[in-house]
Amino acid sequence: MEEEGRRDSVQSVVTQKGESRGSSRRRRLFWKLRQRWKLLGLFEIDKEHEFYALTCDLKEGLRDAIQDVTQSDIQPQVTDEDYSAKLTQGHEGYMMRTYAGSVFQHFRQSLGMSEEGYQRSLSACGLYLQFISNSKSKADFFLTNDKRFFLKTQSKREVHFLLHILPKYIQHFQAYPHSLLVKILGVHSITREQEKKKYFIIMQSVFFPDERIIGRYDIKGCHVSRWTEPEPEGSRGVLQVFKDMNFEGNVICLDQQRSWLLRQTELDTRFLRELNVLDYSLLVGFQPLHADEKSQNWSFANLIVRTKRSVNGTGSPTTSHCASVPGTVEEESDSVDKEDNSTDYSGTPEVTSARRLPMKKIGQQVSTVSDVSDVVAQNRRLLPNYRNPLHVMDGPEQRYFVGIIDIFTVYGLRKKLEHIWKSMRYRGQEFSTVSPYRYSERLCRWVETHTV
């Protein structure tokens, strides 16, 4: 009898575990079905979500990783060792690895971000959000609860490419502090028990803050597969990002800042072309200005604040008089020294050495600026007195959120073969997979023809 009782007890435990696993599988199946039903939008990653345990680990791991970098002595300049550094931290049930941590810490400082605020957003107790889009990308997108930062999974190849071009990426922002390129703020990987390693990047959301944005577009400058069918009006929980063909009939009204945008788009796409990169997107968001925002745009007090932010970032006031005039552009100087890098990476150009350059705060670069011509050469503009100013431009009636994302696709053999196939299939039509030169030229033309 006792033996039978023990067998029954063991069988009961096994049954309970089996039911628990079965219940977990059913929850995951239900979530995937719910994703298919809703398709698009932002969803809280709650306890029923398949990514809940992962995001909890990410919060804890990122908190400790940022804390570790913050507590270390920050050096006035970065070195070769900083670019190749890896910080590995073991946790219960998973391992977190941080790549080039001190380099990204310097970069965040150059953008005027505090490490405390960055850590707070990534590790706050509020639930992460999952962003489900109509993108063909197989990546997972997570958004911090305050919607300030995106976490996006990347392939191992994409992460290695980013780390390879990181010196040149940083140097581009030193040369052009008001660049439209997405601000990549960290690279990490997480390895959980019995799961494959996941690589992910952290980037600043272009659409932040998003409370009053009434339209979002992902622009590539072509037509094939560039239409998104709008969801029925009143669809709950749906957040759509439209494409090129949906944009037809719209225009970006910038007035004096139009020439600045044209020039900066040219500078940024030329940089990506030199990296042999294509398939990136120009994000554009629309937000109507409040009446008081329109009236304050060129008030004297607002002009002072905007000038200080434009030349000094978020730093202390400057005695310098050099502020750029909106819309004023000149050719930039080619004063950046170059040296060879022996690493060959899928046909990309050699990476310019920026590894030993001091990582000055962008706001403090005025100390190296001698006159107005130097500021204009960097294609600076009067930044709005607004959160996320580097990705925001104010026109007469609308506020525009603008940024270039997805900068990891190299025009290698696979893409060249894809170009040949699409050339035959879409003869005479504009599709995305073209040479980096053609791609950058086309996107610049799109900006020129869709702005006034």
From TrEMBL:
Keywords, ordered alphabetically: ATP-binding, Kinase, Nucleotide-binding, Transferase
InterPro entries hit by this protein: PInositol-4-P-4/5-kinase_C_sf, PInositol-4-P-4/5-kinase_core, PInositol-4-P-5-kinase_N, PInositol-4/5-P-5/4-kinase
SUPFAM superfamilies in the cross-refs: SAICAR synthase-like
Chain residue ranges for the region called Disordered: 311-353
Gene3D superfamilies reported in the protein's UniProt record: 2-Layer Sandwich, Phosphatidylinositol Phosphate Kinase II Beta
CDD domains hit by this protein: PIPKc_PIP5KL1
Biased composition (Polar residues): 311-322
Pfam families, per database record: PIP5K (PF01504)
SMART domains referenced in this protein's UniProt entry, alphabetically: PIPKc
Domain PIPK: 35-451
PANTHER family given in the database record: PHOSPHATIDYLINOSITOL 4-PHOSPHATE 5-KINASE-LIKE PROTEIN 1, PHOSPHATIDYLINOSITOL-4-PHOSPHATE 5-KINASE
Entry protein name: PIPK domain-containing protein
Phylogenetic placement of the source organism: Eukaryota, Metazoa, Chordata, Craniata, Vertebrata
